[in-house]
Amino acid sequence: MADREQPVTLRTRKFLRNALLSRKQMVVDVLHPNRANVSKDELRAKLSELYKSSKDQVMVFGFRTQYGGGKSTGFALIYDSKEALKKFEPHYRLVRIGEAQKMEKASRQQRKQRKNRSKMFRGTAKSKGASKDKKK
Fold first, then answer.
1. Are 15 and 24 a contacting pair, CB within 8 Å?
2. Half-sphere exposure of residue 96, counting CA atoms within 13 Å on the CB side?
3. Residue 67: predicted pLDDT
4. Residue 23: which residues within 8 A CB-CB, separation 6 or more?
5. In whole angstroms, what is the distance from residue 24 CA to residue 43 CA?
6. Quick check: 61 and 75 in contact, CB under 8 A?
7. CA-to-CA distance for 108 and 113, rounded, in angstroms?
8. How many helices (H) and strands (E) in the chain?
9. Contacts of 72 (CB under 8 A, 6+ apart)
10. What CA–CA distances, in Å, run from 48 to 7, 41, 107, 124?
């Protein structure tokens, strides 16, 4: 846990105020010498301090560590309110920060198999399904 005490420097560039989506958006450069990387949770906390907002209104994503380490670059969005964050952010990113529940669904292969099985009963009620002998 000595990693947490190492200093981290945040630099923002390409800052843009997006009034239509009620947010500030920017590219974030993270300098983290002597550290492998920095958690997104830690970055959200540091950005919220920097821009005087709540941690719940900050979204960070798309971070890539430069070859050789010590520097990462990603994207940050700081919303004006928590409601704006929930309205405009994609569901999968809301799940990442714990603002939404993940939708449970059958695996892709199971969904395809169910679709293809239902195609065999064309013209009959799909719920009960016709016998295989009818098809011949």
1. yes
2. 14
3. 94
4. 77, 78, 79, 80, 84, 88
5. 16
6. yes
7. 9
8. 4, 4
9. 29, 30, 32, 37, 38, 63, 64, 65, 66
10. 17, 11, 37, 58
In angstroms, rounded to a whole number, what is the distance separating the alpha carbons of residues 92 and 98? Answer: 10
Residue with tokens 């940050």: 76
The token duo for 49 is 């301090």
Residue bearing tokens 């892709």: 108
Q: Read out DSSP for 67-92? A: TTSSEEEEEEEEESSHHHHHHHS-HH
The string of pLDDT tens digits covering residues 34-47 is 889 999 999 999 99
pTM above 0.85, yes or no: no
